[in-house]
Amino acid sequence: MKVYSELAGRELNRETKAVYEAAVKLELAMLECEEMDLEVTGVEWGGGYQPRIILRENYKTKKFVKSGTAQIFGMKTKAGVRYNFYQMQVRGVKCIWEGEREYGKVRQKTKFKH
After folding, report:
1. DSSP 33
2. How far apart are CA 101 and CA 94, in angstroms?
3. What is the pLDDT of residue 66?
4. Which domain of life is it from (predicted)?
5. Which of 17, 31, 36, 60 gives 20 to 30 Å between its CA and that of 68?
């Protein structure tokens, strides 16, 4: 059975419609990432038809974390170094990246009185 896709401007079968509309959203999100100086390194297609954009950490991603636009959604430790996983939405598409540390948290040197 075919259904009408406004983005395609024609009728498509349901599966084709879902994939096509996800691809269009992905393209628009990637163009906006480019405008925001975000470096796209890849795309993951997970369950269903919802892609995720993989970004490289840079000064803009750090600003998004500090401002609260991006949030931590996981972490890993590799060779004693903690890596946080961050996420945010761009045009309805989830963008993810990993960073070596938490931003905005300055470690203070502890002064001991003897």
Report:
1. H
2. 21
3. 93
4. Bacteria
5. 31
In the chain, where do the E strands start and end? 2-5, 10-13, 39-45, 51-56, 71-78, 81-90, 93-99
Residue type, 77: T
Q: What tokens does 112 get?
A: 């001991």
CA distances from 111 to 105, 107, 108, 114 (A): 18, 12, 9, 10
Backbone angles phi, psi at 37, to 5 degrees: 60, 35
What is the pLDDT at residue 111? 53
pTM of the predicted structure, to 2 decimals = 0.78
- Residue 107's pLDDT band, with cuts at 50, 70 and 90, is very low
Would you say residue 106 has pLDDT above 50?
no
